[in-house]
Amino acid sequence: MAHLLHVIPLVAAQNALLFSAPKKDKAPPPSSKPAKSGGGKQKKKKWSKGKQKEKVNNMVLLDQATYDKLLSEAPKYKLITPSILSDRMRINGSLARKAIRELMARGLIRLVSAHSSQQIYTRATNT
Compositional bias (Basic residues) at which positions (predicted)? Predict the structure, then answer.
């Protein structure tokens, strides 16, 4: 009789499953994300290469016209650095440094401040 006590709850549970009302499908809870519109996989985002800087084509040797322009215009600049000469004369940096040494030797410009990486010059005045 003791073994029947264990079987009765099991039979009652099975009968409850057989005769209970069918379960209704629960609606999914509303999600905060909007539903995807349209089918298909979305395209993967491509990385942009950023803004492409235009490569400058500076001269590596002075031609006569540029040399004459250097001797006439550069001593009139208020501020003279290798980068300014490189931009305005369209020459590369090493050529601009050589040009500054040439202008210094001729006495057309004078040194304002010198640092290991940056030299600043100005026009020579009569003072």
Answer: 41-50
